[in-house]
Amino acid sequence: MEQARTIEALRKACQALRHRFGALALVPTMGALHEGHLALIRAAVGSGAGTLASIFVNPLQFGPNEDLARYPRDETSDLVKLQEAGCHAVWLPDVPTMYPPGEATTVDVAGPAQNWEGALRPGHFRGVATVCAKLFGQVRPDRAYFGEKDWQQLQVVRRMVADLYLPLTVMSVATVRAADGLALSSRNRFLGPEERAVAPRLYAVLQARSAALATGIAAAGALDTARRELAQAGFAVDYIALVDGPTLVPLPNGRSGARLIAAARLGAVRLIDNVSVE
Q: Residues 128-137: pLDDT tens digits?
């Protein structure tokens, strides 16, 4: 597996992969890789494309009171996991490479970025869109792979790619879960034993309310029930909402393409999850 730490080395790696495979796939990550990330790698490799992962903890998407310094980093383990998953190359830029002195451009996305995570974490999606635009410009992939666990992020990136006519396809991969239903996340390692035992309740509540919403009941009652159930389980709920999948606009009841999204805290750990509502 090729490792690139400079733009020149990255370009050579990308050229070699495109020459060898004909198509190039990018899997952007912030490292601390788990099975959810590796599912993206396997999907990209399985498509027949030369597959390049990036590992970069992006400071632009962290707010002043968020956990940039605490975000887990384990490059040695990440590289082993990528190689075992069949990844062909990895891009490992540092902050000055991604954000050189004197740069003056960021990417703002409205639409699906405006509410939920966008409202609670001002500037977060500007950071996501900017780093993704930079990665797409550096790598020039034919397609890029993102997980559905970060549903709003996925829609923000899709909107940016469509609006800027970027020549790539954004591919999604279903959320990978632990056996008890907890969505895999790099931050799950910060859950204490008691919190870890409670954490799967978030998915269980979403599943139950999704089933209720699928019968056509009004969203307001189902969401109130979900908030109450989560609070009783020990969660501090940031939001739970029924939204249109692509636009994240709130919906009054379930319909095709709807998504039930939630963010809630257990102690110091913030969990996000979502399920479809058909």
A: 999 999 999 9
Residue 277 lies in a domain: no
H or E, element range at 146:
strand 143-147
Concatenated DSSP letters for 8-47? HHHHHHHHHHHHHHSSEEEEEE-S---HHHHHHHHHHHHT
- Interval 238-265 mean pLDDT: 96
| CATH number for the domain that contains residue 62 | 3.40.50.620
Is residue 37 annotated as part of the catalytic site, yes or no? yes
Same domain, residue pair 169 and 57: yes
pTM for this model (two decimals) = 0.96
pLDDT tier for residue 70 given thresholds of 50, 70 and 90: confident
Write down how long the chain is: 278
Q: How far apart are CA 13 and CA 20, in angstroms?
A: 11
User: Domain for residue 224, yes or no?
Assistant: yes
Please name every residue paired with 50 in a beta bridge, in sequence order, or none if there are none: 24
Choosing from 19, 34, 37, 124, the catalytic residue is 37
